[in-house]
Design a protein that fits this description.
This protein has one domain: Metal-dependent hydrolases (TIM Barrel). The chain has eight helices and 21 strands. The strands form five sheets. Strands 8-7-6-2-1-11-12-21-20-15-18 form an eleven-stranded mixed sheet, with helices on both faces. The protein is α+β, with helices and mostly antiparallel strands. The protein starts with a helix and ends in a 5-residue tail after the last strand. It is globular and about 70 Å long.
Length: 419
């Protein structure tokens, strides 16, 4: 090929790549949601419609151990919210859409399948529904995003001991990975609410293969994101897992999600499991499941409970960000990381009689230390070369809407980077 033509082709290729990068945009989504298909208290179309009308671009309906691909009927009188939900369902979607049979105590409503719901509510480039399932085994819960076939937990395992918990986790992550390889469909699994009933320790999580995502924030009121005097909070777990995986276990980075885990759609009580508390902002080339998965696997997203970023640049070992400022709200940006050669000494948490508890051990303050702090809406950090990873946390003074605990403020978390 003549040199000028070769240069022209190369130039076009570079231009196309640049153009594609420039065309990528931010999409808002929730990856953990429940409906009448399991233990949510409303019809899936009503749930999806709420997210669509509240500015979300994509949603995963992740019901427990089930995929919405078959015939299923709801007995209205057996659901606490059945009559109220059915009334709202009929008003929103009409008798031509709502399928009802029987009368009185025998009245049932057919739950629409995901393909039917997608045909009703999806809009290209505007709103996307991603297939999902929450693979649930007692207190071990793993979400599978863009799953194509049902995966069940291994019920033979006793998930009250650490070796069995690790096996249960690995079973779920292996099954999702195997389905991805076999089908060729891009999908990933993530660990849900590790502190729910204190189910998963950092030491257990750090060992899992095919695992790169977990919930650093979950909006359910009982999942204990913040930990307590005996248990590490989820953000502390994140840093421990990152330090050990990147520094010593030879495993990949772990990304942090924020999700709703919504169940309750007929209540406004902060004690209910409500929508709109946690989400991810994903920078993808288009609004498709494959693009969302690809972007998230590159770490091109951030998690939020209310803080929005106008700029997030990650390149050449540098993180730059700018917050979309709200009037009267102050912001602090902290860059958090762990340096190579950190003190790995740990201390077990013990009972009063000296027995070791099955909880995350105490780690050095050198794990997950604040490397730099900025007040205001702009911040940047360039890796010095001695960090295993660096991530950013943005904390505002804006009270979080409907905080499940009370007193929480809106925050955002960027994904960890390393050289």
């Amino acid at each position: 090929m003549p040199l000028l033509r070769l240069l022209a082709v190369c130039g076009l290729a570079a231009s196309s790549a640049l153009s594609a990068a420039e065309e990528a945009r931010w999409f808002k989504g929730n990856l953990h949601t429940h409906t009448y298909w399991s233990d949510g208290d409303d019809f899936p179309e009503m749930v999806a419609d709420w997210y669509k009308t509240h500015g979300y671009d994509f949603l995963a309906l992740s019901d427990h151990n089930i995929i919405a691909d078959h015939d299923k009927w709801l007995k209205v009188h057996k659901s606490k919210t059945g009559a109220v939900a059915l009334d709202g369902y009929l008003k929103r979607f009409g008798k031509d859409w709502v399928v009802v049979r029987g009368e009185g105590d025998q009245k049932e409503v057919r739950l629409r399948t995901l393909p039917e719901i997608k045909s009703k509510l999806e809009e290209p480039g505007r709103f996307l529904l991603i297939p999902s399932e929450e693979i649930t085994d007692k207190n071990v819960h793993v979400n599978a995003t863009n799953i194509q076939e049902l995966i069940l937990p291994d019920k033979s395992l006793d998930t009250t001991t650490s070796p069995q918990i690790i096996k249960a986790l690995q079973h779920a992550f292996d099954a999702v990975h195997a389905q991805r390889v076999r089908t060729g469909v891009p999908m990933f699994a993530h660990l849900n609410h590790p502190n729910f009933k204190w189910a998963i320790t950092a030491e257990e999580l750090m060992q899992i293969d095919h695992e790169q995502f977990f919930e650093v924030y979950n909006g359910h009121p009982t999942v204990r994101n913040q930990g307590d005097e005996l248990h590490a909070g989820t953000e502390r777990v994140w840093d421990i897992v990152l330090a050990e995986r990147l520094g010593h276990l030879g495993k990949p980075v772990m990304y942090g999600l924020a999700t709703d885990d919504s169940h309750n759609y007929h209540s406004s009580s902060p004690k209910a499991s409500l929508s709109g508390r946690g989400w991810v902002m994903v920078r993808a080339k288009d609004l498709s499941a494959s693009s969302i998965v690809a972007a998230m696997e590159k770490g091109d997203f951030y998690a939020s409970t209310g803080v929005e970023l106008t700029t997030l640049k990650v390149s050449g070992g540098k993180i730059e960000l700018e917050v979309k400022a709200q009037p009267g709200v102050e912001y602090v940006v902290e860059f958090i990381g762990t340096r190579k050669g950190y003190d790995r000494k740990t201390v077990a948490v013990k009972t009063a009689d000296g027995k070791e508890r099955r909880v995350t051990r105490r780690y050095s303050a050198e794990v997950g230390t604040v490397l730099a702090t900025f007040k205001g809406t702009k911040a940047a950090y360039a890796l010095k070369g001695d960090e295993l990873y660096v991530r950013a946390r943005v904390t505002s003074t804006q009270p979080m809407k409907s905080s499940p605990l009370g007193g929480e403020v809106e925050m955002a978390w960027t994904q960890p980077i390393s050289r």
